[in-house]
Design brief:
single chain, alpha/beta, Methane Monooxygenase Hydroxylase, Chain G, domain 1, Pectate Lyase C-like, seven-stranded parallel β-sheet, cytoplasm, CARP_motif, chaperone, acetylation, Tubulin-specific chaperone C
Length: 340
């Protein structure tokens, strides 16, 4: 009969055997976890590569379609089919705004520049094909009868202000545009009949409040200081250039802002807004309303459900890991909701 100590020693495993058994169990779990992580990394890389391929295919499709439509618009302009050209140009703008989510910033910029150039060409062709005024002799003034009271001259109706020296971007030929120029501390307003599909220019205004109730084709705001500009839906593009300390509420397909500082924008824009050479500009959603604005939105072709007010491309800020210091969003508690 074995001694009690011998039986106990034979039945219980030694300490090294226990440690070896634990390692045999733990080691496969670590390997499995490491293998799972490796497979997840491979899957992420595969999905990323597929997404990049899709993005490149979408970009190639857009560039081909955009080139075809641009050539079609150019051909229609050359043939004088201006209304058809205007319709195709609006479709071209919609193609661009619907594709910005997968285009590179330089592709967006090239597309915007091409659309702006075609808009200028369309306006120039309209001006060129406009019938010229016929020459007519003026009637001679009749002498007043002796003893009759002299007739007072009737005051001439006020004409829309012509732009100041130099032309804003996109202006064809130098003809006066619809709008205001050179006013100071004034209340200025244009209505639907005056604005409908017109190219509007606001230039060199100081401390003015401008209400544009209607549907312009384009809007240019140039060299304005301390102004408030309230504008209805613009069918195509808005350019703000060289302005400071202004408040602007704008609805458009495309918004470009150059050399501007200290301005607040309340916008509805279907593409991404673009800033260049700007500082201390801020953005919030479009809030302005007036009787008839729904009809103006309908005639403008803008989609009220599409608003990229908080997506801004700063062409002076190329870093992708840090936000641009040149623009910001207006905090909700500081946004203006009542304009009258």
């Amino acid at each position: 009969m074995a001694a009690p100590g011998e039986v106990a020693g034979a039945g219980a495993p030694s300490q090294p055997e226990v440690a070896a058994g634990s390692a045999a169990v733990v080691l496969p779990e670590r390997l499995q976890r490491r293998e799972a992580e490796r497979q997840q990394g491979v899957e992420r890389q595969r999905q990323k590569k597929e997404a990049q391929v899709v993005k490149e295919e979408q970009s190639e499709f857009f560039l081909a379609a955009f080139a075809r439509e641009r050539e079609a618009v150019e051909g229609l302009l050359a043939a004088g089919a201006l209304e058809e050209a205007a319709g195709r140009l609006q479709a071209l703008q919609k193609l661009l705004t619907g594709s910005v989510r997968f285009l590179a910033p330089y592709e967006v910029r090239q597309g915007q520049e091409a659309v702006a150039r075609l808009q200028g060409d369309l306006a120039a062709r309209r001006q060129q094909l406009q019938p010229k005024k016929k020459f007519a002799f003026r009637a001679l003034k009749k002498e007043a009868a002796p003893g009759s009271a002299p007739r007072l001259a009737e005051p001439a109706p006020p004409a829309p202000a012509a732009p100041g020296p130099g032309l804003a971007e996109g202006e064809p030929g130098g003809e006066p545009l619809c709008g205001f120029s050179g006013a100071q501390d004034a209340e200025l307003e244009l209505g639907p009949a005056e604005l409908r599909q017109r190219d509007v220019l606001l230039s060199e205004l100081r401390g003015c409040r401008v209400r544009l109730r209607g549907n312009p084709n384009t809007l240019r705001v140039r060299d304005c200081r301390g102004c408030t500009v309230l504008c209805g839906p613009v069918s195509t593009s808005v350019l703000v250039d060289g302005c400071s300390d202004c408040l602007l509420t704008l609805a458009c397909q495309q918004l470009r802002t150059h050399r501007t500082r200290g301005c607040r924008f309340y916008v509805q824009v279907t593409s991404r807004a673009v800033i260049e050479g700007c500082s201390e500009v801020s953005f919030a959603p479009y809030y302005w309303s007036y009787p008839g604005i729904e009809k103006d939105f309908e005639s403008s072709g803008l989609d009220r459900d599409s608003n990229n007010w908080n997506l801004v491309d700063d062409f002076d800020w190329l870093a992708t890991d840090k936000p641009s210091p040149n623009w910001s969003l207006i905090p909700e508690q500081e946004r203006i909701t009542c304009w009258d």
